[in-house]
């Protein structure tokens, strides 16, 4: 996990407030404290797309700032159908299960 994170990389993040689903985001830029990311929405078996949130009446990209230590998996490559590969999905399930087990 020592590889660096580049802008436009897709990464998995461990963020307790969203722990019921895989947390995937695309890196927008490096910041002093970590990274600015653009959340993506999807599932282990379905396609992933850029997440939007409401800002008044319009929908805007859902941006967030994360610390490098929040990243649990780097350099995720999505398939041509914008899905996680089976191997990555299995790895993420195991990583999240392990993280969840340490919180009790």
Automatic annotation (TrEMBL):
Source organism, top-level taxon: Eukaryota
GO molecular function, a single term: chromatin binding
Stored InterPro entries: Scc2/Nipped-B
Entry's Gene Ontology BP terms: brain development; chromatin looping; digestive tract development; embryonic viscerocranium morphogenesis; establishment of mitotic sister chromatid cohesion; establishment of protein localization to chromatin; heart morphogenesis; regulation of gene expression
Cellular component terms (Gene Ontology): Scc2-Scc4 cohesin loading complex
Name of the protein in question: Nipped-B-like protein B
